[in-house]
Amino acid sequence: MRRDRGGSGQTDPVISIIAPGTRVQGDVEAEGTVRIEGEVLGDVRAGKAVVVGKEGVVEGDVATQDAVLSGTVRGMVVAASRLELQSTCRVEGEVRALRMQLEEGAILNGQVTMGEDAPVSISSEPEASAEEGVQEAPRESRDDGSEGAPREEEAVPG
Predict the structure, then answer these.
(1) Cross-strand pairs, 51
(2) Which H/E stretch holds residue 130?
(3) pLDDT attached to residue 89
(4) Quick check: 17 and 35 in contact, CB under 8 A?
(5) Residue 54 in contact with residue 71, Cβ under 8 Å?
(6) How far is it, in rounded angstroms, from Cα 141 to Cα 113?
(7) pLDDT at site 10
(8) What are the mean pLDDT values of the chain's consecutive 10-residue runs (158 residues total)?
C-alpha cells in the first residue's frame, strides 16, 4: 500500500480519507494513515496514524501509533506512541497512550492509562476466538507486569 517515488526505491505511505458526508459502517484498517472527516461506525486501526477532523466521528475503538483527535470518538483510544487531543475534540471512553497532549477545551470522559505501563497493543491480527464469533474478556494487568485471564479466585461463578 505504498507508492514508489519515480523508481527511486523510496515509498510514501498511503493516506486513506473518509471525506465529510461519508458514513462507513464496519471496521477500517490501513497500513499508513487514516484521516476521518466523516463518520465511522466501527473500529479504526492504522499502522501509522489516525487523524479525526473537527467534524469527524468514530463510534468504535481507535488503535494506532499516533493519533490526533479534533472530532468525536466514542470508544477506546489506543496510541502506542503519541495521542494529541485538540481543543475541539470529545472522547467518551478509555484512553491508553505512551504520551498524551491535552489542549484546553478538549473533553475527555473515561479512564486514562499512560506511560510505559499502558497496554498499547495495536496488532491488527484478530484473535482466533474472535474469528469464531466468540468475544474474549479483556485481559487484566498483573502486579508483576504480566497479563492473563482472571485468576481462579477472581473468576465469577457461572
Answers:
(1) 35, 68
(2) helix 128-131
(3) 97
(4) yes
(5) yes
(6) 12
(7) 55
(8) 50 83 96 97 97 98 97 97 97 96 96 81 43 38 48 45
Give the helix/strand (H/E) hosting 40. strand 39-41
Query: In Å, how far from its chain's centre is CA 131?
Result: 20
| 57-60 own/partner pairs: CB under 8 Å, 24+ apart | 60/27
Residues in the chain: 158
Residue 46 CB partners (closer than 8 Å, separation 6+)? 16, 29, 30, 31, 32, 33, 34, 63, 64, 65
Q: Return the pLDDT at 61.
A: 97
Residue 125 confidence (pLDDT):
44
Q: How far is CA 54 from CA 13, 37, 51, 57, 122, in A?
A: 23, 7, 10, 9, 24
Give the pLDDT confidence score for residue 40 in this predicted structure: 98
Distance CA 120, CA 80 (A): 5
Q: Which of 118, 114, 124 is nearest to 147 (CA)?
A: 118
- 92: helix, strand or coil: strand
Amino acid identity of residue 1, one-letter, is M
Model's pTM, two decimal places?
0.70
